Structure formats: structure tokens, C-alpha cells
Amino acid sequence: TTAFRKPHVGSWYKNVLVDVLARHAKDTDLCSMLNMVNGCVSREVKNKGKKQTAEYKSSFTKKGFYFYPGLTRNPMAPIDYCI
User: Fold this and answer.
1) Domain range for residue 39?
2) 45-63 pLDDT, tens per residue?
3) What biological-process terms (Gene Ontology) are attached (predicted)?
């Protein structure tokens, strides 16, 4: 399967993933962030009548795995995603 892309900005999934991590990693567990990504990608505008969806599977038994690399997004940077 091929991922949908906007030629000038790249793949929907990658861009939403980076944005969710930049905005929420400081206070949200990884499982919750991946669910946010899936929700945003599934709501993205259709491309020629087709929609892209992501599948996230986890073997974590409880929430609480935090992934904070210490990076944050510039709050003034323009964003056209659903987060």
C-alpha cells in the first residue's frame, strides 16, 4: 500500500506524528499520542475519494510509557493538521 502525500509537505502520517510528539510528549504517554495520530490521519481530507488510515497495535499492559526527547515545536510555526 502506498501512503498519501502532499508533494510540498510529505506524508500525512509522518507530519502528524512529528507534530503530536512535538506538542504532547512533555505530558502525554506514547500510547495516547499514537492514538491521537491515528485519529488525525483518519480525519484527513480524502485524496481522490480515498482515505488513509493507520493501524496501531500495542503490547503495553498499562499506560505510562513517556517519550520526551526534550524538543518542542515553535509555537508560532504554521500547522494545518488537526491537533
Assistant:
1) 9-43
2) 666 677 767 777 777 776 6
3) proteolysis
